[in-house]
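Protein Record: Sequence and Backbone Structure Tokens
======================================================
Tokens: labelled as protein backbone structure tokens, with as many entries as the chain has residues.
Question of interest: how does this chain fold, as expressed in backbone structure tokens?

___
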Amino acid sequence: MNTTYAPAELAAMAEVALDQGDCERAAALAVEAAHAAFQAAEREAKIDRRGELADTAELAAQVAREADTTGKAGDRATRYALHVGQLATTYTDAELREEEAPDGGRAVMVYTAPACQQCTATKRKLTELGVAFVEVDLNDPANAAARDHLINDLGYAAAPVVEVDGDEHWTGYRPDRLKALAS
């Protein structure tokens, strides 16, 4: 397959192959389209564009399911489409910071886990201090990229993690640091 085609072009080629009755080619093109959409979504910074890629991947998965008699190509394309869908609904750190602090204020993100007492205390203290923040539930599958960021980029394995403006961060309930955010 030629990987120089855009995901949408590959999906369109797969539809044409399916319409022409070439199911084997349609399935192969559809899997390639879904994979290309996944790769592009991983690199894409804008959530709107990731949404377009998710639509393309879902179309490709549908074509693959229709064209594939063994189910293997349909399953592969569907897995890629699911991953692209997750990427399409997950804001990047930069997007969350912009959403939280559009006027140039400090962007505070609190990464939490269910039944975490320190997480609850951190959120309660920030609210009490009047500090706006974005909560990211680490157990939500849609936030897998955020979980990877905490573990791989920041080196944390426990919640809560508070990240400020993308460059200051800590773990645990730290009232002293939380109070500093209010000033």
